[in-house]
Specification:
Largest sheet: 7 strands, mixed
Bound molecules: glycinamide ribonucleotide
CATH topology of the largest domain: Rossmann fold
Radius of gyration: 16 Å
Strand content: 15-25%
Structural class: alpha/beta
Helix content: 25-40%
CATH architecture of the largest domain: 3-Layer(aba) Sandwich
Oligomer: single chain
C-alpha cells in the first residue's frame, strides 16, 4: 500500500476530494493530513472522513520533525493541496520527486512568493488574462518552479471576477488532481486535459 500524506493550510476541499477518490483503492491510501494551521477547516473534513489530521507549527515543518513523522508512518508520497508554506530542503531531500503541488494558475505565469489562493485569481483578472487554469508540479527549492506534470486550462471572460475564476479553477482541480496522482503512483500513462 502506498501511503499519501496531504499538507493543507486552509479549507481543504482538494484534500477531501483526494481522500474520497482513494477511499476504496487497493494500492493507494491517504494516511494522514498535516496542517500548519490549527484552525484550518481541513481538520474538520479529515475527521469526518476518518483520516487523522495533525497540526504542526511552522517550525516543525522546517526542523526535521515533520520529516521524521512522515518516515515513521511509512509515507511514500506527499501531496500539497492548498499548503501555503515553502517546503524546506530536508523534506525535499527525504522525498525526492515524491512531493507534488497544485497551483491555481498556468505556471510559470502567476507563480512565486505571495502568489497563492485568491491573490492568484486577483492577479489574473487584473492582468486581463483570457485564460487561467491549474498546474500540478513536483516541488523543488524555489516557489512554484519544479517540473510541471500536468496543466489544464479554463477561459476567463472580461466580466469574470476573481471569485468566478476561482470557481472555474476549483472545478479543474477537483476533476484532475486525484487522477494525476493516481497516474503517478500507479505508473499509468498521464491523463491529458482533452481526454
Ligand atoms: C487551491 O485552489 C490550490 O490550488 C491553492 O489553494 C487552494 C486551496 O483550496 N494553492 C495555492 O495557491 C498554492 N500556491 P482548498 O483548501 O479548498 O483545497
Amino acid at each position: 500500500m502506498i501511503k499519501i500524506a496531504i499538507f493543507a493550510s486552509g479549507s481543504g476541499s482538494n484534500a477531501e476530494n483526494i481522500i474520497r477518490y482513494f477511499a476504496n483503492d487497493d494500492t493507494v491510501c491517504v494516511d494522514c493530513v498535516l496542517s500548519n494551521r490549527l484552525d484550518a477547516f481541513v481538520h474538520e473534513r479529515a475527521k469526518k472522513l476518518g483520516v487523522p489530521s495533525v497540526y504542526f507549527p511552522k517550525r516543525f515543518f522546517d526542523d526535521g520533525s515533520v520529516t521524521a513523522f512522515l518516515q515513521a508512518r511509512g509515507i511514500g508520497f506527499v501531496v500539497l493541496a492548498g499548503y501555503m508554506l515553502k517546503v524546506c530542503d530536508g523534506l525535499i531531500e527525504a522525498f525526492p520527486n515524491k512531493i507534488v503541488n497544485i497551483h491555481p494558475a498556468l505556471l510559470p505565469k502567476f507563480g512565486g512568493k505571495g502568489m497563492h489562493g485568491s491573490h492568484v485569481h486577483e492577479a489574473v483578472v487584473a492582468a486581463g488574462e483570457k485564460e487561467s487554469g491549474i498546474t500540478i508540479h513536483y516541488i523543488n527549492n524555489e516557489y512554484d518552479a519544479g517540473q510541471i506534470i500536468f496543466q489544464a486550462h479554463c477561459a476567463v471572460a472580461p466580466t469574470d471576477t476573481p471569485d468566478d475564476v476561482a470557481a472555474k479553477v476549483h472545478e479543474l482541480e477537483y476533476r484532475w488532481f486525484p487522477s494525476v496522482i493516481d497516474c503517478l503512483l500507479k505508473q499509468k500513462p498521464m491523463v491529458h486535459e482533452n481526454d
